[in-house]
């Protein structure tokens, strides 16, 4: 069949059901964007490509459906790098379309030219460049399939002078692969270990959510009466109301989960690469069980045994593997110490719930006094933990939330729980600031009937604040955003208090700026909350306005300057002066 290259490109997108594209318009891809409306593809023109990429990530994580990011070649595409690497570590199957400078002038250092394949080589699971105009559909189909198979972004690089060519082409077929379910020997070994375990613990990761394995993990946990922990920022990988749910491990996670997994003799790490933030000590507890047998299940063999020693590695889909293991358990699996274990789980969870409820303030390390001074300086301001408790009072159970990177958001890691997967969006292990707002916008586009709330500290929010100029337009859905306002880069300030004697370099923010005021100036609703009751009421009203009135609300929650735990105690140490540094050694530049 004869068609243009842009028709072939868009028809291939349609074959795969890709309905949403995020980015900023550019001449390098106008031949396809021109026919997006006729194809049923919506182009969401954001304020910055980096935020557009995070919208795509939020859409895909909330829905499980692929979306696309696209922008002008060169600087437009370069702005996607952070978002694409974020999606890579979030295991989001995204299509990255990078229009390239024309072949005719490539290499001459022309307008908006850069090596786009090299730029994304470490950010995607697969990449391919179109070498001939007649191969555009073939290449695009292969890129999309590889994104799905790897559950990660994949890139197609398209020289812009290949558009508007008439080609004779057969559209490619979609060949789907069935996910592996683990090797028989490994499954038998895992089942035997769990059958003989006296204190089995299950650790659910992102693969449980992505593979639709939550129900299967519930059945397995109930069969063994095993407590279930979840990895860092994967609070939605097990129902929060379930009596076996022990909470998130890692940074600012659940002490209950940490205490219970420390007692394990067998750990089933299901759908997780055991990333460092899910296994590092927390609250001073080095909880990872040193002598336990570890069964690690991951779809990617490269991740098995990478961060922790494992007894059995299983390459496979979390749902299939969990189902197979359960079928192979002995009749008396889980019976050893069952009643004592159930009682201990309940007791440990209750103690942690009471402790968490009573935690009003952040503690100072010995020899430091910042948090004490922060409370004294603003005695009437909300503390981060009081703010999170206020939020929990108004947050609907069915809501999708998105957290940002930063101190106040991290303090909240122990608070939210969910009854279903694809509800908790977070920046993940690449840790980009500015994720909270755009990702929750993408989630709302994909789930218009579900309330969504984004969370950001004021430092991180400053990176995404430009999106307030875009999302107020009529075609954009209403969302709710909370900004924790304490006028500082909190995570780095905590590092400064612990290792640099309160030498605060680059940590202070402008106190004259009002994010609620900026929201109002952009035609949105801006609200300031100063007390727990005000924050709870503001969030309840914002959710109502979002769902019933189509109104986007930004709530600026005024927080005192208390600082929670540093992100990485293991990565920092006190500086030592050897040669010494003096201003007197500064030499004037010669101009």
TrEMBL record:
For this protein, the Enzyme Commission number is 2.3.3.15
* Residue span, Thiamine pyrophosphate enzyme N-terminal TPP-binding domain: 3-119
| Region Disordered, annotated ranges | 356-376
One GO molecular-function annotation for this sequence? sulfoacetaldehyde acetyltransferase activity
Looking at the record, the residues that make up the Thiamine pyrophosphate enzyme central domain are 187-323
The keyword Metal-binding is annotated on this UniProt entry: yes
Which InterPro entries has this protein been placed in?
DHS-like_NAD/FAD-binding_dom, Sulphoacetald_Actrfrase, THDP-binding, Thiamin_PyroP_enz_cen_dom, Thiamin_PyroP_enz_TPP-bd_dom, TPP-bd_CS, TPP_enz, TPP_enzyme_TPP-bd
Alphabetical UniProt keywords: Acyltransferase, Magnesium, Metal-binding, Thiamine pyrophosphate, Transferase
Query: One Pfam family of this protein, by short name?
Result: TPP_enzyme_C
Please list the residue ranges annotated as the Thiamine pyrophosphate enzyme TPP-binding domain: 404-556
Cofactors needed by this protein, per the record, are: thiamine diphosphate; Mg(2+)
State the family named in the UniProt similarity comment for this chain.
Belongs to the TPP enzyme family.
NCBIfam families to which the protein is assigned, alphabetical? PRK07525.1, sulphoacet_xsc
The identity of this protein, by name, is: Sulfoacetaldehyde acetyltransferase
- What is the organism of origin for this protein? Roseovarius pelagicus
- Designated gene of the protein: xsc
